[in-house]
Amino acid sequence: MFAPYLDRWSLISDGEPIITHSSRLLPVLWQDRPAMLKVAADIDERYGALLMQWWEGDGAAHVYAHEGDAVLLERALGKRSLLSMAMDGEDDEASRILCRTAARLHAPRQKPLPNPIPLTRWFRDLEPAAGRYGGTLTDCSAIANALLADPREPVVLHGDIHHGNILDFEARGWLAIDPKRLHGERGFDFANIFANEELPVITDPARFRRQLAVVSREARLEPNRLLRWIAAYSGLSAAWFLGDPNIQQAETALTVARIALSELAA
């Protein structure tokens, strides 16, 4: 799958392939620069590459070339990791970096992004899941519907802001990869900071409350509005996990949703 692009773009393999559920990646050298060749395996990844081009390296990795399912990206070489920071005593600073990067991505651009996916479509699986499973998902679905009916500060969204999608590009700083090409209220992009399943402490209510203060202040969001987006996003995440099915991760997402709902009721 990599060979046609290695030839077309005069690339030199520079590492072992990385295989994920949605893409195939290969570290390469392009014109003596470290780069990452990524071949999409689903439609979301193909849409994401178009958004990466649109950002033109401002807040996100540069796109060096793009054709069909393949995109050639600037490669992150920095040693720092936001996930490691969050687990090793720098949780607050990691959250601030995520917020600052999201703010760069949300900044207005001169040219429009063609055909972004509206959040109303992105949330289409939540209401049916709430009808099937009830409970916490019913509350999350009601909150999501209210938010989507009354959007504030609509922007082009990354759609998957978390500790593994903002990388250390050394002199260029912290930059985003793997967006979803969404459009809607900017508050949505900050909810996933609270829902990254790779971070074991996301179900700790004390940590949740501390990060709520950090993120709402850094992102300039009303805590109540942010809590509602966290509940909505966590409900959607749980709906997707239940559909897989992945009961353990669904329960983690539901636990985060319950913490947010509890804070809203306080």
Automatic annotation (TrEMBL):
One matching Pfam family is APH_6_hur
User: Which first-to-last residue range defines the signal peptide?
Assistant: none
InterPro entries in the record, alphabetically? Kinase-like_dom_sf, NH2Glyco/OHUrea_AB-resist_kin
List, in alphabetical order, the Gene Ontology terms for molecular function in this entry.
phosphotransferase activity, alcohol group as acceptor
GO terms classed as biological process = secondary metabolic process
| Protein name (database record) | 3'-kinase
